[in-house]
Amino acid sequence: MLSRVADNLYWMSRYLERAEHTARLVDVELELWLDQAQRAGAERWRFLLAALQTAPPGEGPVSAASLVETLVFNRTRPSSLVSCIAAARENLRHVREQCSSEMWEQLNRLYLSVMDKQADESRHLKSHAFLRGVRDGAHLFQGITDGTMSHGEGWQYIQLGRYVERTETLASLIGAHFERLPHKSDEAVETAEYLEWIGLLKACGAFESYCKAYTAEIRPMQVAEFLILNSDFPHSVRFSVDRVESALKTIANLTERKAGMPARIAGRLRAQLSFSQIDEILAAGAPLYLRSISRECVQLHAAIHQIYFDYPVESELAS
Amino acid sequence: MSVTPIRLQTDAYSSFVNYQLDNSYDEMFEAPGVPRAHYRTLHKTLMGMAPEELRRTQQAADLTFLHEGITFTVYGNKEGTERIFPNDLVPRIIPAGEWAKIEKGLTQRITALNIFLKDIYHQGQILSDGVVPRELIYSCRHFRREMRELQVPRDVYVSVCGTDLVRLPGSEFAVLEDNLRVPSGVSYMLANRKVLKRVFPTLFRDYNVCPVDHYPQALLATLRSLAPANWPTQQDAATVLLTPGVANSAYFEHTFLAQQMGIELVEGRDLLVHDNVVYMRTTAGLRRVDVIYRRVDDDFMDPLCFRPDSTLGVPGLFNAYRAGNVTLANAIGTGVADDKAVYAYVPAIIKYYLAEDAILPNVPTYLLNDASSRAMVLEKLDEMVVKAVGESGGYGMLIGPHSTAAQREEFRQRVLADPRNYIAQPTLALSRAPCLIGDDVESRHIDLRPYILFGEKVTLVPGGLTRVALPKGSLVVNSSQGGGSKDTWVLRAEQTREPGITQKSAADLEEAAADAQALDRARRPEGKLRQ
Q1: Does residue B401 fall inside a structural domain?
Q2: Which of A251, B103, B120, B304 is the 20 to 30 A CA-CA neighbour of A305?
């Protein structure tokens, strides 16, 4: 397929995944904020910005309202939730004939509803409903995509974008969390921190699944293991990397190209995650480990562009 | 124009109560209340439908258009974005005999025009022999000197042509203008047909209408037949559709046709030229392109050759074209033959190359470059239609009888400033056809745009786009100016008997519609793999 088209599908998917992740994270954070003392506000801010890898806003009071305003509704910030939805829709609009009409309708509907609410004066009072709506809309889009789009090359780029983004956002979220609440061994959590760990699990939509795997006892090592190394839960780093590798393999087959750099990076990541032990990771420091994964993701993204989208013409013509 | 409202049925309310006849040819009625033979069944069906039924049927048709997103963009409109293409569900019916003549006439015309284009870009015999004035050709903005001596495959310059026909009060068809550059509208023709099949399935079957759905296949075959000379077989020729992108008014049509033909839809930035060969950038590497069905104007095709500020084209494309490594359909420089001043010479052109009289006549045309014609026309501006020669879409046009004194004066100045750029024609009484306006059936002016494909052979899809001037009394049919369209039914030749009366209840219509839908689904072609 045309490189431009593949590029658009990949980016559309990344933007949508990011929007969904932001919605879930901010929703959880707003709830936690209510239980916090005032002075903890600045610290929460720093954590969130690190988790989302986004620049701090200018001066201004640190409050739940300003948090929502900056991370969710600010149309001028390219990484805000509404900007991500708008970008996802714009990317899809340019390649509309590639997707089914149901896909377009759903994404367009989500976009229009988000824009509508963004203009609402009292939007900060209805945050929870809004964020819930975004998550539902994104889920619906993914379901429609899986059900109505042929699982050919185009669909694979959508999966690729989704899981590359997920790997990166999970790595930075978990890393930022462990920076704030460092734990090197398997001791139990103090009550004060208990809610924070549950918050982390909920931000990944993982609380209930975690409980099924480990019971409701929150132990940092188990939480880390679940979110980083578990191969079954969809919002774990391992799961996402598995999907990335599988998408790359399929794309390499379909385009009859040698797997090349992206596959090597993805393969290395998967091997690293399959063979790591959680106690080793925590002993060395989870943030360090996760930062290296983030770096690999950035390289992976560049390699994908290099091979499939933006390849230099000269190298192609030589072959 | 005298307009006499004539009651067509004295008893019981009739949808035709507001139907007006005047001195223009009416497609449906030969006399008040008397439908023409081929319209009798349609007339009876419409009479048998209550107004609410008619309205519901129109709404169902509109909904289909809405859901499928069959839209176009209107320039110069405040909202300035996508609108659903207005369609009218009363079909326009053309008997087989009339169509046969149209087909012959159009085939003759496009054959002559292709020979003409080859001539003026090579020897220029017709110019030396004085049949067409040389300065007329060379002063034409669309004459491209770059095309001199360039060989095109099969000498086919125009492979996709949309010629606008009008029916005059005497019942004969005449050519209003040719569109030889980037004619559009064919996707609406296909969409109209699809909707009508759902809305009037029984009527459709009874009438025995010639199909049009093979247009995409015919177009693809035509494009492939023009593959550049140095390519092994036609089947291997990689064909793409070059679009200006999402912002273009006809973008829906570009995506629709590309999808139906199973070819790649590309923009200028997806293509590149290396060693005079055109390639497209795909995830599997560079793929050679052989035939480009281009929906981009000449001016924007190659920034190295034409407008340097164009980002819609491909640098070096014209060199690849000149080297014979890629085919462009339509060729560059065809606009000189659809210039409205050159149009006046087409009957002479046909005579010169084919030694035949034009089967389809022109409409009387005055070239305002000529002093005496100019003087005469400027005297009678309120009776004339004045057009700028290079425009399309109904822009740059003055309709005398519908204009204000101020508009006429403005046009007068324009003509005096640049007379070569204008022609005038007497206001034509375009034929009228029944249209569903609100709850009633009223008459509106229409024209006809058949599509002619010229490759290895000439292919005409029976029918074409019938465009309707929707505002009451308006003569402007272009979609960009508020026009709409109808489905056109060309009847099969073997039709000898009168189709049966089809007055059905709503339930029967629904059942028939469901049957037709199932048939439609079964007939849909298999999904095509991308190249």
Answers
A1: yes
A2: B304
Confidence at residue B152, expressed as pLDDT on a 0 to 100 scale: 93
A-chain residues near B244 (CB < 8 A): none
- Smallest CA-to-CA distance from B360 within B157, B100, B114, B115 is with B100
Chain A residues touching residue B289 (CB < 8 angstroms):
none
Asked if residue B58 and residue B9 are part of one domain, the reply reads yes
**Model confidence pLDDT, tens digit, residues A184-198:** 666 777 777 888 888
Residue B368 falls inside a structural domain: yes
Q: Exposed (0-12), middle (13-18) or buried (19+): which is B305, by Cβ within 10 Å?
A: buried
Residues ≥6 apart with Cβ < 8 Å to A289? A276, A281
The number of domains in chain B is: 2
Q: Is the pLDDT reported for residue B526 higher than 70?
A: no
Are residues A220 and A276 in contact, defined by beta-carbon separation less than 8 angstroms? no
| CATH code assigned to A1-149 | 1.20.120
What pLDDT is attached to residue B167? 93
Is pLDDT of B486 > 50? Answer: yes
Same domain for B57 and B90? yes
Q: Do A153 and B270 touch (CB under 8 A)?
A: no
Q: Are residues B387 and B450 in the same domain?
A: no
- Classify residue B263: in a domain, yes or no: no
Q: Is the dihedral of CA B364, B368, B369, B371 positive or negative?
A: positive
Q: Give the residue from B427, B447, B463 where a domain finishes.
A: B427
Chain B residue with the nearest C-alpha to that of A95: B246
d(CA B167, CA B27): 9
Residues of chain B with Cβ-Cβ distance to A316 below 8 Å are 285-286
Whether B454 and B494 share a structural domain: yes
Which residues constitute the domain of residue B411? 364-427
Q: Is residue B274 less than 8 Å (CB to CB) from chain A?
A: yes
Nearest CB to B285; choose among A153, A254, A257: A257
Interchain proximity B283–A317, CB inside 8 Å: no
Interface test with A, best of B283, B287, B531 (most A CBs within 10 A): B283
Q: Are residues B16 and B90 in the same domain?
A: yes
What is the average pLDDT score of chain B?
84
The three-state DSSP-derived secondary structure of B210-253 is CCCCCHHHHHHHHHHHCCCCCCCCHHHCCEEEECCCCCCCCHHH
- Reported as a single tens digit per residue, the pLDDT across A265-280 is 999 999 999 999 988 8
Question: What pLDDT is recorded for position B522?
Answer: 53
Inform me whether the pLDDT recorded for B193 exceeds 80.
Answer: yes
Indicate if ipTM > 0.95.
Answer: no
Q: Are residues B21 and B81 in the same domain?
A: yes
Q: A-chain residues within 8 Å CB-CB of B245?
A: 94
Where is pLDDT greater, at A48 or A57?
A48
Q: Is A294 helix (H, G, I), strand (E, B) or coil?
A: helix
**Can you give the CATH number for the domain in which B384 is found?**
3.30.1490.270
Query: From the CB of residue A305, how many other CB atoms can be counted at a distance below 10 Å?
Result: 15
Map out the domains of chain A as residue ranges: 1-149, 167-319
Number of Cβ within a 10 Å radius of residue B314: 29
- In a shared domain, residues B421 and B495: no
Mark whether B443 and B505 lie in a shared domain. yes
Is residue B357 in some structural domain? Answer: no
pLDDT given at position A54: 83
- Which of residues 222 through 251 in chain B touch A, CB cutoff 8 A? 245-246
